[in-house]
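Lecture 7 notes: from sequence to structure.
We start with the chain below.
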Amino acid sequence: MQFNGDDGRSLWLDNLEIFDGLRNLESGCISVEDGKISFVGEKTGHQSPEPSKFDEIIDCSGLFALPGFVDSHLHLFSLAASNSGYDLSHASGTTRNTFQSILKMAKETFDKQEGWHRFYALDSFDLSISQYLDRHFLDELFPEDPVIIRFKSGHGALLNSLALRLIDVTETTDEPPGTTFIRDLEKGLLTGVILEGEELLGAKIPSIPIAQLMESLGDVLEDTSSKGITTLVDASQNNDVSKIEILSEFVSSRPLSPHIVMMPGMSDLSRFPREVGCYSDVYRKVAIGHVKIMLTASSGHIFPSEEDLLSSIRKAHSLGFPVAIHAVENECVSIAISALEKDFISGDRIEHASELFDKNIEDIAALGIQISTQPGLITENGDRYLQNAVDPSILYRLESLRMHGITIGFSSDAPFSPADPMGWISAATGRNVSGTGEILESSERISVPSALNMATYSGAVVSGVADRKGHLRQGMDADIVLLDMNPLTTEVSELFKISPVLTLSQGSSLYSQM
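Predicted structure tokens for the same chain:
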């Protein structure tokens, strides 16, 4: 097999097994012209075009075709930043001395960024580490430089004493709304842990140089393309006009990129219609998506109130935007549903929806709320879920949502979980916990076809791009992934081994191993 990948060439992909985003078509072929799909089906069909008329004919025997995967919720700038910083994900399970050695090595070998030591992806729930997560521990290692360690959860960070002073946080500083400064229970003094403080940190800590950030972002786009992802939805709460301008300039400078949707944050929403566009408009190759609204309980209390949440929803709706409400814990999900019952438009969705009771699911189905969730966390965090007090039967209820006809889109929440669609599909169908062999609520397993749908077509629906993405049919964008194995005939335990060999975006190659 050989694929030239020249832009604008008409393609005939022959001898494929095909899943079109909705159902299995079994064997057939796909033709691509002018970046669009011109035919999908059996090549002997009476409407089948003549293969010889195409610029390139590829024998795809043994390969499996499906629409490009949709990551309906990730954080591009955070992912690029974390990839340019020092990764602490490997520090889990280490002793205090070993963790100190890791930080010392990083201090000596990894360059500071704008004067700061920046670390990412530390598992703050790891009991072997969490017991000494305080600023004094960092002060011993970094007495003269500011340090920030961002947690893998995405909801907190640890700073040393100098870093706290530089962001103007002292023992008497008032907490910004929704943010919590964790204090020592015995002395009542700041530990250096800040929960839900990303707005504060972003405003006070010097930004990573834009050239370095964009170089890392280029690596991110290449990596996601190699995983078969052709649509990325940036769901960051602090997205503003300046960020969409930076992102659109970067994407416009590249010959080819995945399709990118950026959700506006509430704080800058009013500027979008005036300066860059409204929902579903495309600003210099970047589409404008839902309005992202945060509803959290991770700081110890729920923020914002339902009254304030409803006010934000109504503002977004008045400007023609559906909303995407971050709600992980059941209390937050219930409040999000209650607010949407008072003001709902088609396309409104809840992010994560990790804890659901039957009544929540019934209410979501009755209203038509869509869900973007991260099945990969079943595998990654399943051991912690099984150990804590949360009833595992309410976690990531995929089959129950599906049975109620609720539209579910899969996503990664990267950098807080890998952007790996075959990993999502494996987790959703097996629900196996990494490293233990235990299963997190087997009744919530879904079938492989359902998982493929949620990673493609349904992902496009919840992302507002299903008019041109997520479905292999005539007239749709030729966003196509070829896999090296057929997931419909592969054992569930082996699904994670399947890899893309070709990723096409509008008929042009984003990634090829052919």
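Points to note: The chain has a mean pLDDT of 92. The two ends are 6 Å apart (CA to CA).
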